[in-house]
Write a structure and sequence with these properties.
The chain folds into two domains: 67 residues, Periplasmic binding protein-like II (D-Maltodextrin-Binding Protein, domain 2), CATH 3.40.190; 108 residues, no CATH class. It is mainly alpha-helical and 186 residues long. The protein contains seven helices and six strands; from the N terminus they run E-H-E-H-H-E-E-H-E-E-H-H-H. 38% of the residues lie in helices and 9% in strands. The longest helix has 15 residues. Pfam families: PBP_like_2.
Length: 186
């Protein structure tokens, strides 16, 4: 089962296939699935439900949907070692904390391509990061203060309960750089 609609999840999965296979995956990348086989379903909910209803089928989708549908998750052998790695908060946390933050000053960019070929054993390789793009200075100080408060809450109390809902908290190793960037918003 693959995503029949255009999807960032599909783009991420095909980038993983291309990178992890050292180019053996020659179908391309992008928001439309190029695998050439299988049946499409719309959305992560659609692929999860279709796999649950079709014995022996496989799919790719967001972890939270797999958890909600009580699907069995694949364990993946990575470039970091011979042991297959299952998806968990710990294995994805290792992947994210092993990534490089690039960019100048407070313009923080996560090198997501490093996720696909991890170097740390126990790192799960198919990870998609969420970004927040904001201005460093706002003409209206109240807007700047509101944006700053929102982002402070996302790296603070907003981290609570993420794992229970299929999401991974920001690694501790990133929090100080994120906090510095957020606190610089005016």
């Amino acid at each position: 089962m693959f995503r029949g609609d255009e999807s960032g999840t599909t783009d991420n999965f095909q980038k993983y296939l291309d990178s992890a296979s050292d180019g053996v995956w020659d179908k391309g990348i992008g928001k439309t699935f190029h695998g050439g086989v299988g049946q499409g379903a719309d959305g992560n909910g659609g692929t999860s439900a279709a796999v649950r209803a079709t014995e022996g089928s496989v799919t790719y989708n967001e972890w939270s949907f797999g958890l909600a549908q009580k699907l069995t998750m694949a364990r993946i052998v990575t470039s970091a070692g011979p042991e297959a790695v299952g998806i968990s908060a710990g294995s994805v946390g290792k992947t994210i904390s092993g990534a490089t933050l690039t960019g100048q000053g407070n313009d923080l960019v996560v090198d997501t391509f490093s996720f696909y070929k991890p170097t740390r054993p126990g790192s799960y390789p198919i990870v998609l990061a969420t970004y927040e793009i904001v201005c460093s200075k706002y003409p209206d100080p109240q807007v700047g203060a509101a944006v700053k408060a929102f982002l402070q809450s996302t790296i603070g109390a907003g981290q609570n309960g993420l794992v229970d809902n299929g999401y991974i908290p920001v690694p501790e190793s990133f929090k100080s750089r994120l906090s510095d960037a957020i606190n610089a918003i005016a």
